Every structure is written in structure tokens, then in C-alpha cells.
Amino acid sequence: MSKFAFSLLATDPKSMARAGLWETPHGTIETPAFMPVGTAGTVKGLTPDQLAATGAKKILANTYHLALRPGPEVVADLGGLHRFFDWSGPILTDSGGFQIFSLAKLSRMTEEGVTFRSHLDGSALNLTPEKAMSIQEFLGADVIMCLDECPPADAPEEHILRAVDRTTRWAARCREAHQRSDQALFGIVQGGTIESLRIRSAEALLPFDFPGYAVGGLSVGEPPPEMYRTLEFTTPVLPVQKPRYLMGVGRPIDLIEGVLRGIDLFDCVMPTRNGRNGMAFTSTGPVRLKNARHLRDTSPLDAECPCQACQRFSRGYLRHLFMCGEMLGPILLTLHNLTFYQRLMKGLREAILEGRGIEFRASQLARWGESG
């Protein structure tokens, strides 16, 4: 039996939403699920116990950043990622493909692979499909990603076509190079927002029979409605009985809209990054704690939230921490935002199991004032 069995428990009658169970060597994930981002082997500001207290079951780490420091061999010598930062649940590693987009000024790409000039010290990091597999095997994550080319949203169609076909060729090389049976290798669908290219990419990857498929190259500058439209014609091409992962997304409303279009897994830096900068997601919409209106506010950040930030402290105190530059402020808001995201996904999953996914979206938008 596969170490990565995926089973569907329910589908929403009015949308493409699914609720499922995904078995991995380090635990079973209830889907749909959101993965906090621990780029360098840590979700900034939180201990593993605090992270688990948010409800998180699976996290993401990054191949490019861990390859630069401390290096994949060092991580392997220290017991692999799970032992390295003491996380007992599943871990996914990105391949470094997104950095081809985000660090375009520091990289040079050829058919063989990509060479990065380190953002740390300028040293060269050569990343080929084979090298991406080797690094991720050293790191030891449960789920690893093929190296792909992620073009910007405003790229010309011919550029996106080249990226689609290169992503397919690189996926073949990744499939050939990958050795570890305790890791699930996901293929990544590219194609911008162009229907014919998304279908071309997905159909080219299907013969490799990956254990799961990711939708990459979204949330890179296109308007949200274009992202949603793209999912509507992409997810139906992907296998029903395998998990679907939308990479790097996103806002709370994006999670809901993605799930309603058949997505099972998400990751994004938004809850942690926004938390470190004083912005909280709450049951009634976003709260910007640095605003002066919270100076004497004795109310909790979110009366419905069970996290420490909401149960023990006032908005006025949380604002004070940020205005004083105290590290506790970003820690507490990170804790809160991740708890909010996990509670949102739990509520969405329950709604799907009860056949009311569309109603869940309407209810949330009404509470958030459509600003989710």
C-alpha cells in the first residue's frame, strides 16, 4: 500500500470542493489544509509546540534557502528536517523553482538548469532538476517538488509556452533522478492564465503518474478573478484521486475560492509576514494594530479565537508591543494569524462534509465585509 494514500470523503454538491484524508509517513492530513511556511527550517518566531497549538499539521521549507545555509548535507547529518527543527508532522519542500521568478535578477537559466548568485554572499548555486532532487533527498521532507520554471504574470504567451514545455522536460528528469520511496514527488502545472497552455502542461505531466499535482505560477501578479478562472479550467484536468496543491496562495478569501475550485493544499507567507508587521486576520475582517484607534482598546483581538494573543491580551497591549518594537508583538500575531487560518480551513472542511461549501463562503464574506 502506498505511503501516501489519498482518499476522498465528500465533495460539495454545488462546487468542486473536496474533503479528504491524505496519509504520509509522518501522519495523516485532513484536507483541505493550509501549510505554514518555514522557509529556513523555522516558522519565524514560533517553537514547534506553539506551531502545533495553532492546529497546523504540515509545514513547508525551502530548498533554495536551505541549500545555501546550512547546506543539505549538514541537515542530513543532523538527522534530516524532522529532527533538525523537531517537527514530527509532515514536511513539504519547494524545489527552488519559485526563486527563478522571485530572484530573477540573481539567476541565469538554461535548458540544463539555473545558476543563482546567492542573495547572501554572491556565491553561485547551480540548480538542475537532478540537483533539486538530490538536495531534497538530503533534506528528507515527506513531499518534494519538481524543479519548474515560473514565468511572471505579464510574460508574453511564447515565453509562457517555453516555460510550460521546459517544466515538462524538467519533470521527466526529476522523475528519473528521484530515488527515495518515502518521499512523494509532485509535478507542477504551469501555463499562466492561458487555458490551452494550462491544459497542455497538465496533460503532459499526467503520464508520469506523480503522487500529487501542484498548480504553480499563480498569485504572481494576476488579478484574483483571473486566478480563480484559471483554477476552474485547470483542476478538472488533474486526477481526482490525488491531492492538488495551489502553491503560494494566499489571502483567506483565496483559500476559500481555491477550495471551491477543487484545491486540497495551500501554503503562503501571508499570515506570518502580515503578523510580523502588525496586521491580524480576524473573524470580522483584517485589523491593523498599529492604528491609533487601538491605543486604549481593551477588547480582545478576536473574541472567537482560542489563541493566547486573544485570550490573554487586549488590542491596546498588542499595539503597545508593536509601537515599542518588542518581539512579543510579532510572535503573538503570528500565533494568532496561523490559528485563524487553521480554524478557517477546519470550518471550510466541515462545511464541505455537510454539503454547504457555497453557503460557507457567503457567510464568511458577510462577516468580513467582503474584504477577506
Automatic annotation (TrEMBL):
Its EC number is 2.4.2.29. InterPro entries: ArchSynthase1/Queuine_TRR, TGT, TGT-like_sf, tRNA_ribo_trans-like. Pathway: tRNA modification; tRNA-queuosine biosynthesis. Keywords: Glycosyltransferase, Metal-binding, Queuosine biosynthesis, Transferase, tRNA processing, Zinc. It catalyses: 7-aminomethyl-7-carbaguanine + guanosine(34) in tRNA = 7-aminomethyl-7-carbaguanosine(34) in tRNA + guanine. Its cofactor is Zn(2+). Pfam families: TGT. GO terms for cellular component: cytosol. GO terms for molecular function: metal ion binding; tRNA-guanosine(34) queuine transglycosylase activity. One of its GO terms (biological process) is tRNA queuosine(34) biosynthetic process. The keyword Zinc applies. Residues 248-254, 272-276 are annotated as: RNA binding. Residues 16-368 form the tRNA-guanine(15) transglycosylase-like domain. Zn(2+) binds at residues 305, 307, 310, 336. Gene3D superfamilies: Queuine tRNA-ribosyltransferase-like (3.20.20.105). Substrate binds at residues 94-98, 148, 190, 217. The active site is at 94 (proton acceptor), 267 (nucleophile). Belongs to the queuine tRNA-ribosyltransferase family. Homodimer. Within each dimer, one monomer is responsible for RNA recognition and catalysis, while the other monomer binds to the replacement base PreQ1. NCBIfam families: Q_tRNA_tgt, tgt_general. Catalyzes the base-exchange of a guanine (G) residue with the queuine precursor 7-aminomethyl-7-deazaguanine (PreQ1) at position 34 (anticodon wobble position) in tRNAs with GU(N) anticodons (tRNA-Asp, -Asn, -His and -Tyr). Catalysis occurs through a double-displacement mechanism. The nucleophile active site attacks the C1' of nucleotide 34 to detach the guanine base from the RNA, forming a covalent enzyme-RNA intermediate. The proton acceptor active site deprotonates the incoming PreQ1, allowing a nucleophilic attack on the C1' of the ribose to form the product. This is Queuine tRNA-ribosyltransferase. It comes from Planctopirus limnophila (strain ATCC 43296 / DSM 3776 / IFAM 1008 / Mu 290) (Planctomyces limnophilus).
